[in-house]
Amino acid sequence: MLGQCRANFRMTGGIEAKAESMSNENAIESMTVAEKVRLLETVWQSLCRHSGDVQSPEWHREVLEERKRRLEDGVSKVSTWAEAKARLMRLE
């Protein structure tokens, strides 16, 4: 079965895709936390510009409802993006 998977992977151009993916992973691993945060911000902005193209799965709604309940019960608190970003920047 593994051989068949490998053959299918080669036939569909998977080797090139895998090589590109590994290259991207290596590039990301070499980035600082600040650079990764800037990359995430860029990706998020792009997603927001095309948000109609994205359908959220049901489990997203369930997670959001649970988080809302925890906020209403006082179990969790909200951080602004600036606060969260500052915490991430301190991880370097």
Structural category is mainly alpha
- What distance separates the N and C termini? 43 Å
Task: Sketch the major β-sheet.
Answer: none
How many helices does DSSP assign?
5
**Mean pLDDT across all amino acids:** 81
Percentage of helical residues? over 70%
Order of helices and strands: HHHHH
General form? extended
Question: Measured on Cα atoms, how large is the radius of gyration?
Answer: 19 Å
Low-pLDDT runs of 5+ residues are 1-12
Instruction: Indicate the proportion of strand residues.
Output: under 5%
Give the total of beta strands: 0
How would you explain this protein's 3D organization?
By secondary structure, this protein is mainly α. Helix content is 73%, strand content 0%. The protein is built from five helices and no strands. It has helices spanning 2-11, 14-29, 33-49, 58-72, 81-89. It is extended, with a radius of gyration of 19 Å. Residues 1-12 have low confidence and may be disordered.
Entry summary:
The protein is extended, with a radius of gyration of 19 Å. The chain contains five helices and no strands. The longest helix is centred in the middle third of the chain and has 17 residues, at 33-49.
Topology, pairings included?
Elements: H1 2-11, H2 14-29, H3 33-49, H4 58-72, H5 81-89
